[in-house]
Write a structure and sequence with these properties.
alpha+beta; 8-stranded mixed sheet; 31 strands; globular
């Protein structure tokens, strides 16, 4: 999987549509009914790859010429014709030097090689009753391959050597692989298709100083010449070739277990003491998913490996997932955030993707949509309903943003390049659609259907119909009405809700406004909640809509309503718009059953547009709502309330709000909320009155709190904090680095160029993206000599960074510096 998650450079996801080869189609705007250009992927029909042969076993013996960045390989492939007799075998092998080939133990020269495919003419016709062994001696040279990539994976050369000459003091030497979608053939010959599966043996020879990780079980290690070890790994259960992996480096291994099965975490030695806190929920996740699916984790072990310079977020290689280096964090980072979503995502793939695999990339949502919904399922289970809802809402926002310029069916056979499939449709929309399906059929039927789907299709390749039929067989219902519109057609629901009096009742008019030429009308169960002024009971009902306009009658007069929420379970994949009176919004804020319902009401109550009917700046009632928001159970609402104070003057600020903000700055349990409170206090004219709060926050467990406190103290030129600046300069967390950087710019410092440069060179891509502007501001105040140094560093980033947006930003910034040099 190419982990499409906001924390893996969210800005790339927003720009993902620029990578698609698409044709423009007109469609209705979701909001204003105006024509808006939306792209749809087009291209040739992309069916499942025809299976002329079945690959049943792969044995690889590999070693490395690290300075040359070459793999020296010997591959023995066991194959048999799928059904029809065959006399020709075509294997994928990209950019190899082929030294020799043998078939059935006999050398052969009856082959051709075009740098992509080896075509072998066999000495006889083989039938499906026959099995042959093909041996290939080769050298793989991944750096000689043409460059290619996408928003989801930035490079496709299969095999990566990190700092092979050991010339970068801050970067370890590593070797790792990335097979999805078509890059395993960059390091071993194979039948590169998702509908192939085979067992596996790996003999990997490397320097003794390295740990070597691969799929399956480690059988033994043997010593070899030149201070090497050969590690023998075997996978006895069949899996797809794109899931083969190796990771080699100087790792600390932290061992854990689940029901006597090895669960291990491989990190750089500096992070060994944090590994269990980073990955430690893994055994509980395995137990949760195994229990819910009634299908125990199906592989012999589970390893998680962090690598440098990874080309994606993470990858679910069978029994050994690889993760980007951003997961190597300390406990102060973990006080603010965690990586549970990406860990759950890769783990769930071991059922959906590894055990049962999409038979073609057109069916990719059968892998990725399940992995995305697993994040919601786990977070809801571990952290509560609101936390799961918040995660789902972020996925919704990501998909809806992409849908403004791109709309495709989830299952799509027409595309120009397979990388088009790795978008926020396959991930976010698909995960949300499965979450909606969970609501449609019910929790018990949902998991029983998934159990049946896994049991029927274990160790095989599938298409969307297999999933539908599993749900139909469990529920007893024909579910084309759900699968056809949501999986096979583009678009999403755009619902407009109105309510009006009707014979002493309340009539709801729910209209579907989405484009029905390219999309369709949906059949959706909506939960509708309401309360009356005379009765504090929350009334809930489930109502189905299916037409352009549906009418629903609630047995209560409109004037008696104090609370009304349509789609209170937030299952609609799309948007629901319902204009309500301020009175209903007040009830929604006071009685909302989850943070999102209350947040939507709070936004309506404080938005400037409501000033005519609701004089926010002077109305005591609305000031009371703002005060209540500061104490809301949800940190999202507390933060939103704090931010309101930065937008406009608020009456009675000192008498009504300051004491509560002080308390939040001192002790709010949510680090980000506490940091926002500190930022707010530091912006006040009497900021010095709160210096002890900042000093307390400086050493808080949370980096966000510490960063906000550091910035506040430096703004005050606090001598004790300035004296501690060298201590903070050693930190690599962006909250601390950004605070120091802003201070050095503020005081027109001339002596910290090297510190800035080191932070850019050592930081993650996310850090680099955020620091480029600060670095440029700092360089612009330096001597011409340092400006040249700064410009040259940005030019290097503009050509070498793997992310286009970072390259473009670096280019823009060095042009600013070069312009200043000319003046």
């Amino acid at each position: 999987m190419r982990f499409h998650q906001s924390r893996t450079l969210a800005f790339l996801l927003v720009l993902a549509s620029s990578f698609y080869s698409c044709k423009k189609q007109p469609a209705q705007s979701a909001d204003k009914g105006v024509q808006k250009t939306i792209q749809t992927s087009h291209g040739a029909y992309n069916p499942s790859i025809t299976q002329y042969w079945d690959l049943t076993h792969t044995k690889l013996e590999v070693s490395f010429d690290i300075p040359k960045q070459h793999l020296l390989g010997k591959a023995t492939l066991t194959l048999k014709p799928h059904f029809y007799p065959q006399q020709t075998l075509v294997l994928q092998a990209q950019g190899f030097d082929i030294h020799s080939i043998s078939v059935a133990g006999k050398p052969t020269t009856a082959y051709t090689y075009d740098s992509k495919n080896i075509t072998i003419t066999l000495n006889k016709v083989y039938t499906s009753m026959d099995s042959i062994e093909v041996y290939i001696d080769y050298t793989a040279k991944p750096n000689d391959l043409p460059k290619s990539g996408s928003a989801a994976i930035t490079e496709e050369k299969g095999l990566y050597f990190i700092d092979p000459l050991d010339t970068i003091p801050t970067k370890p030497t590593q070797i790792w692989t990335q097979g999805e979608t078509r890059s395993s053939s960059c390091w071993f010959p194979t039948l590169e298709a998702t509908n192939q599966r085979c067992t596996q043996e790996m003999y990997i020879t490397a320097d003794k100083k390295f740990q070597v990780i691969s799929n399956g079980e480690l059988v033994y290690k043997t010593e070899g010449p030149n201070n090497t070890l050969t590690w023998y790994w075997t996978m006895k259960k069949p899996h797809a070739p794109y899931l083969f992996m190796m990771a080699i480096g100087e790792y600390a291994k932290v061992a854990d277990t689940w029901k006597d099965m090895e669960v291990s975490y491989y990190v750089e030695p500096a992070y060994e003491k944090y590994a269990r806190n980073i990955f430690g929920e893994t055994p509980a996740m395995i137990e949760f998913f195994s229990t819910k699916l009634n299908y125990p984790y199906p592989w012999p072990k589970y390893s998680q490996v962090v690598v440098r310079d990874y080309v994606s977020g993470a990858m679910e290689n069978t029994s050994a997932s690889i993760f980007m280096e951003a997961l190597q964090v300390d406990d102060r980072y973990l006080a603010d955030d965690n990586w549970e979503s990406i860990i759950a995502h890769e783990l769930f793939h071991h059922w959906f993707g590894d055990l049962v695999t999409c038979e073609s990339w057109a069916n990719l949502p059968l892998n990725e949509s399940f992995a995305n919904v697993s994040e919601i399922l786990w977070i809801e289970h571990k952290h509560g309903y609101d936390a799961g809802l918040k995660h789902a809402q972020k996925d919704m926002e990501g998909y809806l943003s992409e849908s403004e310029t791109l709309q495709n069916p989830l299952i799509r056979y027409h595309y120009t390049d397979v990388e088009e499939m790795f978008d926020l449709h396959s991930y976010n929309k698909g995960g949300l659609t499965l979450n909606m399906l969970r609501n449609v059929v019910g929790e018990e039927a949902f998991y029983q259907s998934l159990h049946l789907y896994l049991t029927r299709n274990a160790y095989s390749a599938v298409e969307i119909d297999e999933l539908r039929m599993a749900f139909e067989d469990v529920t007893g219902e024909d579910l084309h009405w759900f699968f056809d519109p949501w999986f096979m057609k583009r678009g999403h629901a755009i619902l407009s809700v109105e309510h009006e009096p009707k014979n002493k009742n309340t009539q709801l008019l729910i209209t579907q406004l989405q484009d029905t030429l390219q999309g369709t009308l949906y059949r959706i169960p909506l939960q509708i909640d309401y309360r009356t002024k005379k009765d504090t009971t929350l009334h809930s009902g489930r109502y189905w809509i299916s037409k352009y306009r549906d009418t629903i009658i609630l047995p209560v007069p409109v004037e008696q309503l104090s609370y009304l929420v349509v789609d209170s379970k937030h299952i609609v994949v799309g948007t629901v718009t319902h204009n309500k009176s301020l009175e209903l919004m007040k009830g929604q804020f006071l009685y909302g059953t989850d943070y999102l319902i209350r947040q939507q009401a709070f936004e309506a109550l404080v938005k400037p547009e409501s000033a005519k009917d609701n004089p926010y700046l002077t109305n005591p009632e609305n000031l009371n709502y703002l005060n209540k928001a500061l104490s809301d159970a949800s940190p999202e609402i507390r933060m939103q309330a704090l931010i309101e104070f930065t937008k406009r003057p608020v009456p009675n600020f000192e008498t009504m709000f300051v004491s509560k903000i002080i308390t939040m700055a001192e002790s709010d349990v949510h680090g980000e909320t506490r940091s926002v409170a500190i930022y707010l206090l530091s912006s006040l004219d009497n900021s010095t009155d709160y210096i002890q709060i900042y000093k307390k926050g400086l050493d808080a467990p949370s980096y966000q709190v510490a960063g906000a406190s550091l910035k506040a103290l430096l703004l005050l030129n606090d001598a004790a904090t300035i004296e501690r600046a060298p201590e903070f300069e050693s930190f690599n967390n962006l909250n601390i680095v950004a605070a120091l950087a802003a201070y050095y710019i503020q005081i027109n410092d001339q002596s910290h160029y090297q510190w800035f440069e080191n932070k850019l060179k050592q930081g993650s891509d996310q850090d680099v993206y955020n620091l480029l502007g600060l670095f440029t501001k700092y360089v612009l105040q330096l001597s011409n000599e340092d400006k040249v140094r700064g410009s040259n560093l940005l030019k290097k980033i503009s050509t070498e960074n793997q992310h286009e947006i970072i390259r473009q930003n670096a280019k823009t910034y060095y042009q600013y510096i070069d312009k200043s040099l000319k003046n």
